[in-house]
C-alpha cells in the first residue's frame, strides 16, 4: 500500500529545539540578572534535561518536577546559589519565551512544500501542549499540518503505542499507509515500528547507528529520496 500520511515529530526534527532553547536561556538570564557564563550552564543543563525528559516519557516524573528539577540540578552542578522562587520564575519564563523563537532545521520549508503536494502531514509530539502550537505558528509551519497530536491530549507519551494508535485514528490513517519521521530512536522510531509504521530517523548528529529496520537521514532534504 502506498504512503498517504506522514507523521512528523516537532522538536529536534523540524523545530531546532537546541538553538531556540539556548536563545531563551540567554534572554531569561539577562532579564533576571543571572550573571553566569551561559556556555558553562548549558553544558551541564543539556544532559540533565535529556535525562529528565526520559523520566517524563517513562511517567517517572511529572511536568512540574521536570521543569523544576532540570534547572535545580543544573544550577547545583555549577555551584550557583539560587532560590526556589527564582527557579520557579525562570521555569515559567522559559516556557513563555521558548515558543516565540523561530529557528527551524535547514530545509524545513522546502521539504514541507514538497511533501504537502503529495501527502497529508501530521505532528506527533511529546512536547508540552500549551506551547507546541505556538512554536509552529511563530515559525510559520502550522498550516502544513492536518492533525496535531500531543502526548498530553492522549494521556501517555511516545513511545507508548496508544499515542500512535490515537494519531492514526485521528488522521483516518493506517500503519500500512503511514510513515513516522523523528529524531528519537526510542520515542519516535521504535514507537512507530512497534505499531507497524515505517520510520525515518533524523540523524542530524550523524551518529553511527548499526540498525537496518529503519532509514536514517542526516538532512531533511534527503527525505525526497524516499517519498
From TrEMBL:
A GO molecular-function annotation: 5'-nucleotidase activity
Source species: Polaribacter porphyrae
Top-level taxon of origin: Bacteria
Classification via SUPFAM superfamilies: HAD-like
Name of the molecule in the record: Noncanonical pyrimidine nucleotidase, YjjG family
Amino acid at each position: 500500500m502506498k504512503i498517504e500520511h506522514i507523521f512528523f515529530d516537532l522538536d529536534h526534527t523540524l523545530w531546532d529545539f537546541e538553538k531556540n532553547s539556548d536563545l531563551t536561556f540567554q534572554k531569561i538570564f539577562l532579564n533576571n540578572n543571572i550573571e553566569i557564563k551561559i556556555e558553562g550552564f548549558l553544558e551541564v543543563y543539556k544532559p540533565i534535561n535529556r535525562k529528565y525528559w526520559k523520566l517524563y516519557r517513562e511517567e517517572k516524573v511529572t511536568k512540574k518536577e521536570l521543569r523544576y528539577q532540570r534547572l535545580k540540578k543544573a544550577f547545583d552542578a555549577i555551584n550557583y546559589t539560587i532560590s526556589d522562587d527564582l527557579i520557579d520564575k525562570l521555569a515559567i519564563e522559559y516556557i513563555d519565551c521558548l515558543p516565540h523563537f523561530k529557528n527551524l532545521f535547514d530545509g524545513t520549508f522546502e521539504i514541507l512544500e514538497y511533501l504537502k503536494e503529495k501527502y497529508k502531514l501530521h505532528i506527533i509530539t511529546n512536547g508540552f501542549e500549551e506551547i507546541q502550537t505556538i512554536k509552529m505558528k511563530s515559525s510559520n509551519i502550522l498550516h502544513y499540518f492536518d492533525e496535531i497530536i500531543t502526548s498530553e491530549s492522549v494521556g501517555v507519551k511516545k513511545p507508548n503505542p496508544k499515542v500512535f494508535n490515537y494519531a492514526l485514528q485521528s488522521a483516518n490513517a493506517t500503519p500500512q499507509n503511514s510513515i513516522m519521521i523523528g529524531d528519537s530512536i526510542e520515542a519516535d522510531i521504535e514507537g512507530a515500528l512497534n505499531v507497524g509504521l515505517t520510520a525515518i530517523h533524523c540523524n542530524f548528529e550523524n551518529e553511527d547507528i548499526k540498525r537496518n529496520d529503519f532509514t536514517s537521514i542526516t538532512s531533511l532534504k534527503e527525505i525526497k529520496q524516499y517519498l
